[in-house]
Amino acid sequence: MASNESRRNYFRRRWVSRLVRSFRKRYFRLRYGKKPFVASYYGAYFHIDLVDSIARNIAYRSLEWAQLNHMIRACQRLKPSYFIDIGANCGLYTCILGIRETEAEIISVEPDARNFARLIANIELNKLKNVRPLQVALGEQRGTAKLNSGPQTQTGWSKISADGIGYEVDVIALDDLIQETGKVIAIKIDVEGQEKAVIRGMKKLLAGNTGIVQVESSTTRDSVIEEMRSLGFTLDQEFHFDLIFKKH
To answer: Architecture of domain 65-247 in CATH?
Structure first.
């Protein structure tokens, strides 16, 4: 009976969630059309352009809902010294974690010029003082790379180009930026296929500290798990393509 009731509650919540999302879609389109506006998600505020899929799903309060909930709870429990948002885009994680009372230093990394401008605008909108935004790409070692911004409708597709198409961006290794040991850290990585290079550029940081690391990995899952395991992190949970690692 309890199992059946839990199942019914689950599907009831999903139905209500879809109904609310459908309502918000119609409301925003009718009220704003193609005009930009500001919307809230998890208590933070964001500049919204409905043309962009990322911004649109923030407005609908559906973007990475489960992952954000998990990261918020983990940071409240672990009280990390650093929260590092790698591939920050417009600052979804940066702003939602930043508005919460935390002593963590937030480092927000976004190489794409278009996305970085949106990140800065959202940091300012939320009046965040504990964020250090960096317009660089992370990789295995210092250098440069070509970055392809992708279409205006999909700003989340911005990525380091394998064929040399795009504009030049600086690349640094996170180990060159942070030399800390014995700390608790929280990291989110969403870098469109460059996750192994990013992890290899932060091996010292991961090996010398504990905490939680969330890695989006659609094509490199097994090798990412092996790389993280070699640094003492075990796979704890999965949310679609997002792998959640922990180390005590």
So the answer is: 3-Layer(aba) Sandwich (3.40)
State the first-to-last Cα distance of the chain, in angstroms, to the nearest integer: 37
- Would you state the pLDDT for residue 222? 95
- pTM, 2 dp: 0.91
- Residues 49-99 pLDDT 10s: 999 999 999 999 999 999 999 999 999 999 999 999 999 999 999 999 999
User: Would you kindly state where each structural domain of the chain is located, as residue ranges?
Assistant: 2-59, 65-247
As a whole number of angstroms, the distance between CA 179 and CA 172 comes to 14
